[in-house]
Amino acid sequence: MTFPAPLTGVVPPVCTPLTPDREVDVASLLALVDHLVAGGVHGLFVLGSTSETAYLTDRQRELVVTQTVRRAGGRLPVLAGAIDLTTPRVLDQVARVSAAGADAVVVTAPFYTRTHPAEIARHFRLVARSSPVPVIAYDIPAAVHSKLPSELVLELAAEGVLAGLKDSSGDLAGFRRVVTGARTLPQALDSARAGGTPMALTGFSVLTGSEALVDAALAMGADGAVPGLANVDPHGYVRLYRLHRAGDLDLARAEQERLCALLGMVGAGDPARMGGSSSALGAFKAALHLRGVIACPATAEPQVPLSPEETEGVGKFLAAAGLL
């Protein structure tokens, strides 16, 4: 697969189906890939937050990438998270997932240790220098406890270090700054090339990870979206993307509002006994199970599973959206 530059469209962060004993359910993973491809998505992102990558062993991560790449069969690009604490560990993950066939890697800022923006920039430069595939930055401060400054993202993009940004920060003003700044990157690259500076970048993608704001992000000029809810309803997000690109803004807004109502399923779990991740990922997997896509709705330990009553609540969201 030749990595598109820039990457556009709907790129779901693929759930990782698990067996009851918490091994990767390969048959269900392949069925999920088929479900997403049939929904018309434009790429697949494995080993992200929705994939529960933090809970998977290196062996399981490699298995997910290998099987997804094989099933995709070159029909669309496969992005893989190379998410770990520090630069040396990320480089190890980059080597693993690129060897397994990933077309690009998705990388966060370092975490656990506190890092300065200069160290974050050095991190991405070192990763890009060693990576055999394009590097996409993943801005997710809720998980890594640092926000990628818009100016830094654009600086690294202009250097050819980054091929794109997946923004899950919720900072719409910062997102707009990146989208606006990205429009001037071709001129910056031409200027750099004219001055003899080697540039690797041929395109830079700005993608939103906010399921409820895809229409707003597209209106700002985003290239696409990486919505976890697209696991459950890929057709809906592809329809939203196509409507917006066709200029049918009223219909696009109505589709976004339908998806926002469906997204209410992430609150199915009782917050008195589980965290938000258990509730959201449990709801996505319960929905995929109820729709007959995966065999088991298990989430990785130590996340708390949904109760039968909470799963029934997920079913009501599916029914209201016309998906059951």
From TrEMBL:
Supply the EC number(s). 4.1.3.3, 4.2.1.41, 4.3.3.7
Q: Which family does it belong to?
A: Belongs to the DapA family.
Keywords in alphabetical order, please: Lyase, Schiff base
What is the protein name stated in its UniProt record? Dihydrodipicolinate synthase family protein
Keyword Lyase (UniProt): yes
Q: Which InterPro entries match?
A: Aldolase_TIM, DapA-like, Schiff_base-form_aldolases_AS
Q: Respond yes or no to whether keyword Ubl conjugation is given for this record.
A: no
Q: Which domain of life is it from?
A: Bacteria
Q: Which SUPFAM superfamilies match?
A: Aldolase
What SMART domains does the annotation carry?
DHDPS
One molecular function GO term is: 5-dehydro-4-deoxyglucarate dehydratase activity
The protein's matches in Gene3D superfamilies, at most eight in alphabetical order, are given as: Aldolase class I (3.20.20.70)
**Pfam families assigned to the protein according to its UniProt record, in alphabetical order:** DHDPS
Xref: PROSITE patterns: DHDPS_2
